[in-house]
Amino acid sequence: MIDTLSSFVGELRAVGLPVSTAEALDAANALLHIDVGRRSAVRETLAATLIKMPRHRSAFDTAFDVFFSVGEMPEALVPDAEQVQAASTGAGDSDQGLADLMTQLAGALQGGDSDVLRRAVREAVSRLSGFQPGRPVGGRYYLYRVLQRLDGIEEMLGDGGDEAGLAAQLDEDDVAALMELLRAELRREIVRRLVADRGAEPVARTLREPLAEDIDLMHATREELQRVEAAIAPLARKLATRLAQRRRRGRQGRLDLRRTIRRSLAHGGALIEPQFRPPRRSKPEIVLLCDVSGSMATFARFTMQFTYAVGSQFSRVRSFAFIDEVDEVTGYFGPGTDFVDSMDRLSQEARIVGHDGHSDYGVVLRSFAGKYEDAVTSQSTLIVTGDARNNYRDAENALFHELAATARSVVWLNPEARRFWDTGDSVMSQYAAACDDVYEVRTLRQLEEFVAAVALPVPRSRSEFLN
Amino acid sequence: METWNSAEEVSLALEKAGYLSDDRIAQVVFLAGRLEKPILAEGPAGVGKTSLALSIAEATGRRLVRLQCYEGLDEAKALYEWNYHKQLLRLQSDEGKAWHEIEGDIFTEEFLLERPLLEAIRSEDPVVLLIDEVDRVEMETEALLLEVLDAFQVTVPELGTVVANHRPIVVLTSNNTRELSEALKRRCLFLHIDYPTVEREKQILAAGVPELSEAMADKIARTVRSIRKLAIRKAPSVSESLDWARTLLALGIEDIDSGVTKGTLEVLLKYRSDIEKAERELLDS
């Protein structure tokens, strides 16, 4: 058990989960108190001691299935030759056999008995995956094969009624939940076979996926983006809370003499509890300028969410979106608006395409300075998000420097890897010269770091200035 | 607590106290008892993090001591404070006496204001200590909590060190508005409580609103799950689905359709934009 545990912990660390030695010891200690024969007990025990963030749970579960699948070895590891051949020719069982299997699976899913389901899944994997020991393919391949053969099971799971409206939607969600369960069980069974065939560590390596916070936003797959989206909302909320805290805390205000004297009456006139006026509300002005062009499409959603978080917190935020024309989008993201709606409005209503829909920072800067010349003042912090890829057009660098000189500070967030800056049509360093700070923000982790840097209490000398 | 031998027993005891747990919750509560470690319960608002602590107290017959956290909570509000109003009065009434005569008098139990942390440590009987919404306190206060949770002893300079008679069962809850420190997380058993599955929510509904028919409970649980899947600002909590069940019951409604849901959606959703969205995506399709 100790061996398994330590290689399991090693795998978690390899994926990027922060597991300390103290936590590993806790886990080992905790295992002494439970019935290690029960997998779910072991799973929850290890999760409670090793995983301290909900978004790390799925990576934990993947690794757990790999390392703790032994103990219930599959009864027939090697499928007989006939089956392998049948599966590889694509014929598989007779149509009747397949239909029976699907009925059995659908029944097991709807019945809700996990043992029955597991047996049916085991059967399905034996018969449909064409599993070949020693073949160096990943689990995903087998999963895909089985699901392909089970095509049509989704329809069997629905109750077939032709209701409309709410009832139909509820059925649809029921089916989606059952399909999710089926996929999870199939995946688990396939992993179990792979581990029995090749051993835990090699299998774990093939199943590793980057954590949501480490996914490169510009090159993420759809599936990965979904995970990022799920992680963004809490981050945005955290940012909003932290910004509000910083605003509330600040330095204490001036002495409030009247309240101090009134309070002193309770102590016979001794002035022992000085009262202060609450600090004046700081009103940071933030101006956001976001590139939402094609090359930035995935990142744009992400920066807009950021805008949304900031916008719901401060009254004096103005946000602008641009491709090769710039338009103000402040109203879209005000307090009380829905983020998805706002994105829809942005793509339909905002005039952000001027000429051909390719980024043109020069035109945008000129247009920005012309249309919104009052937006940036000596009080405002200008935050620009974009890759500074200008399609070899005029950068209007002097104009940007002028803008930067007006603003109190300028921060640039670039979603590209630092090593690609200034390659090709990127003019990052030209603009960077005018910025107070330039951050590479390719992943959620980096965004979080940026947020921490801007949102943590600033040193006193500066905070006084802010107040 | 110490008498529980398995997670199943925990689950039964909690159920008797009116809390329907699941495998994960029961397992973590069981471990907390065995390892004498605090539980850090995290999850969306309204999934029963606080009521878990209340139910543990009830199931174990222990008294609950609650520390509600807020921004600006400090040692004086969390641990102890000297009642200096009273000390001042005492000094005034003793006017004329020498300092050394009174000094011993004003730093005694009589002038000590006990706050939740000290109360939990000094308690004669074993207690459950609930530290609610711990994510609201500042880092410095978190450090104070760490110190207390580590040793369960506190030093009051004038009185000496107080060591806990019984180690309290500690439950910390967090709404995850900020990242808690690594050190705090490391010391706790982490319990993520999410919205319940349809099955569990049905049981909760059946237990909370016994007059509800099974068919209705099923429909309510499924509808609420579908609403939670929408991208909305504030998903309905468990207590809101209980409220909804009571509302429907009070209105004498026996089956749920789009019209009924539309008319009572305010019970589940608290933002105008969320209500509009649910109507658009769920009910009008």
Q: Using the coordinates above, name the CATH class of the largest domain in chain A.
A: Alpha Beta
**Count of structural domains of chain B:** 3
Cα Rg of chain B: 24 Å
The CATH architecture of the largest domain in chain B comes to 3-Layer(aba) Sandwich
How many domains of chain A, as an integer? 4
Strand order, main sheet of chain B: write it out: 2-5-8-1-9
Beta-strand segment tally of chain B: 9
Q: Report the biggest beta sheet of chain A as strand number plus sense, adding barrel if it closes.
A: 6 strands, mixed
- What is the count of helical runs of chain B? 14
Pairing-aware structural class of the strands and helices of chain B? Answer: alpha/beta
Q: Name the strands of the widest sheet of chain A in spatial order.
A: 3-2-1-4-5-6
**What is the H level of CATH, i.e. the homologous superfamily of the largest domain in chain A?**
von Willebrand factor, type A domain
Q: What order do the SSEs of chain B take from the amino end to the carboxyl end, as H and E?
A: HHEHEHEHHEHEHEEEHEHHHHH
Q: Which fold name corresponds to the CATH topology of the largest domain in chain A?
A: Rossmann fold
CATH-defined fold name of the largest domain in chain B = Rossmann fold
Give the largest interface. Answer: A-B, 51 and 56 residues
The fraction of residues in strands of chain B falls at 5-15%
Q: What is the global morphology of chain B?
A: elongated
